[in-house]
UniProtKB/TrEMBL annotation:
Extent of the signal sequence: none
Domain called Protein FecR C-terminal: residue spans: 311-378
One GO MF term: sigma factor antagonist activity
Protein name per UniProt: FecR family protein
Family annotation (PANTHER family): PERIPLASMIC SIGNAL SENSOR AND SIGMA FACTOR ACTIVATOR FECR-RELATED (PTHR30273), PROTEIN FECR (PTHR30273:SF2)
Pfam family, one: FecR_C
Keyword Transmembrane helix applies: yes
Alphabetic keyword roster: Membrane, Transmembrane, Transmembrane helix
């Protein structure tokens, strides 16, 4: 068989457009090559390949083939990645490229997926957006907003020296998945935002009430002002306070809006039905967004604030509910291959890398977690 025909056959194999007849021809060529006292290294060099490449090819697979010549099955060789594609320069380039790609994938798969970091995007009153990490430490004026970036990366809004008149200007702070943030509003109210959350607020509270809008989850320590109640709008819910500490969890797509009170008192109102309830410390109100009912129960304060304190606390929660929290905190997607949702309990640090956390969860039950780049495959 002439050299040009061999090249054509290998090119067909490389492209996947080969027939059984092509395989048979290559099989016969290989056995004739050995029967004539040649080997792959020698043939490749004589066919015009560089000696260094010939040595590399022979060292990688040629010697192995010759040791088992009688049992050699060329169709199996074709199925083995890269052996046939490396016999010519174009094939070798593809082979090396594949090997490099595989190595990169392997390296990527073992890179730790870190937990949420302090980061947020600031949307100004004029619609422009600023990444908070790009702001210099100290006081800055942006689109009418006077704010200070602290040494730990938090923001403090100030009202001194700003003249707004009756005009109301707003800023919005948004955390991405795998992000969290801390801000002090112009009235001195302290807010911590969980991952994938946003808070819209005026640059100066005016009139008879202080109103902000929350999507996602936030913990509030409201500065007391008896003449100007503080209101948090979250979907169909409004929480009204004078000065107190509470947590609201109101992610879009979730069935409940949960409000947990730590101290003081809050009024939780359903905007659809006008139903309301007055919470006492240590209680939690769950507003079902589907049937609009409000349920009040004793709260697990440690669990409600575990995200702010750096922990996951699971108490007999099913794996899907747990993975919702994990996907948000680590910015990963989740794929399920399960017949039933196993339940878990335990306390885990939010500062650990994702691989270690999943390993700990696996040790508690039968559910298995496979991490592929930024996707977790859940199976049982």
């Amino acid at each position: 068989m002439d050299e040009n025909r061999i090249r054509i056959l290998f090119e067909r194999v490389r492209n996947g457009n080969y027939s059984q007849q092509d395989i048979q021809e290559l099989n016969e060529w290989y056995h004739n090559l050995n029967a004539g006292g040649q080997n792959l290294k020698k043939w490749f060099a004589e066919a015009g390949g560089e000696e260094m490449l010939a040595d590399r090819l022979y060292d990688s697979f040629g010697e192995r083939l010759e040791k088992d010549n009688r049992k050699f099955n060329f169709s199996k060789l074709i199925k083995a990645a890269a052996i046939l594609t490396v016999l010519f320069g174009i094939g070798l380039a593809i082979y090396l490229s594949q090997q490099k790609s595989q190595q990169m994938v392997a390296k990527k798969s073992i890179i730790p997926i870190n937990p949420a970091q302090k980061t947020a995007r600031l949307t100004l009153d004029d619609g422009s957006m600023v990444n908070v990490k790009d702001l210099a430490q100290g006081t800055t004026k942006l689109a009418g907003a006077m704010l200070e970036k602290t040494a730990d990366g938090s923001l403090i809004y100030k009202i001194n020296g700003l003249q707004y008149g009756k005009e109301v200007r707003y800023n919005t702070i948004t955390t991405p998945r795998a992000g969290q943030f801390e801000v002090i509003l112009p009235d001195g109210t302290h807010v911590w935002l969980n991952a994938a959350s946003s808070l819209k607020f005026p640059l100066k509270f005016q009139g008879t009430e202080r109103v902000v809008t929350l999507q996602g989850e936030g913990y509030f320590e409201v500065a007391r002002n008896a003449k100007m109640p503080f209101k948090v709008l979250s979907g169909i819910q409004t929480v009204t306070v004078l000065g107190t500490h509470f947590n609201i969890k109101a992610y879009q797509g979730e069935q409940n809006i949960s409000t947990t009170l730590f101290e003081g008192s809050v009024n939780v109102k359903n905007n659809k039905t006008a139903e309301y309830t007055l919470l006492k410390p240590g209680h939690q109100a769950d507003l079902n967004v589907n049937n609009s009912g409000i349920t009040v129960s004793n709260a697990d304060l440690d669990q409600a604030l575990s995200w702010k304190n750096g922990y996951f606390i699971f108490e007999n929660q099913d794996v899907k509910a747990i993975m919702t929290l994990i996907s948000r905190w680590y910015d990963v997607d989740v794929e399920y291959h399960i017949t039933s949702a196993e339940r878990f309990g335990g306390t885990f640090s939010r500062s650990t890398d994702l691989k270690e956390l999943l390993k700990n969860l696996e040790s508690l039950g039968k559910t298995r977690f496979q991490l592929k780049e930024r996707k977790v495959i859940v199976s049982n």
